[in-house]
Amino acid sequence: MNSSHDYxxxxxxxxxxxxxxxxxxGYYVVHMGKVVIHPFPIEHPQFIPYAxxxxxxxxxDVFLYSxxxxxxxxxxxxxxxxASIFNKPLSTTDGVPLWPYLHGPNNTGLRVLxxxxxxxxxxxxxxxxxxxxxxxxxQNQDYKSAGIRIIPNTPEEILAATQFxxxxxxxxxxxxxxxxxxxxxxxxxxxxxxRDHGWDDPPHVRACGRSLFIPEVFLEAHSSELFTExxx
Length: 232
Description:
Blueprint: H1 16-24, E1 29-30, E2 47-48, H2 58-66, E3 71-74, H3 81-85, E4 90-95, H4 99-103, E5 111-115, E6 117-120, E7 125-126, H5 129-133, H6 140-145, E8 148-151, H7 155-168, H8 181-196, E9 212-213, H9 216-221, H10 223-226
Parallel strand pairs: 1-2, 3-4, 4-5, 5-9
Antiparallel strand pairs: 6-7, 6-8
């Protein structure tokens, strides 16, 4: 399938460890979606390949989201708003670009976001958080024209985000997350860059590090790439 939004289609096999983890924890995992390019490479009695089912419908899409425990989104698409509508915790991986997440619905109790890293093909350098803010393209061709390669999250990063979300969902933690230093640094650098380039403050910027989280393990692992000297 070829479209101007192919960057939103990360390799499906990278989600296998996270799904296996959820199954081992006793959860039922429902594979959502309308167009299936490749079947999800898992067979398990508690894994439901709903996306490729003849029973799939708009009504069932809404029903399943409304009864979910955790919604996991492989990059951004319109269906993730159902998590907000029903106040369900949401974990979004391969996030690119990031600015829409600061403008979107913000009434879910927990939103986990793992950015996709961006590589400057001219020198192989990973773009900083501030540079991410100035390359928030919505079309494949714009990334290619700018010489930027989108690096999908690794299986380990997706698994860590899933584990982080489940841990954060525990009754004594949900809606009571402390602001973290790595999240504060990332969003400060990102939003400072937006302002420097004439953007107004995103409506939900105050949610960063409070209800909108990037897992600490991801930011710490990539701190030397994502943060400039002013934000170390």
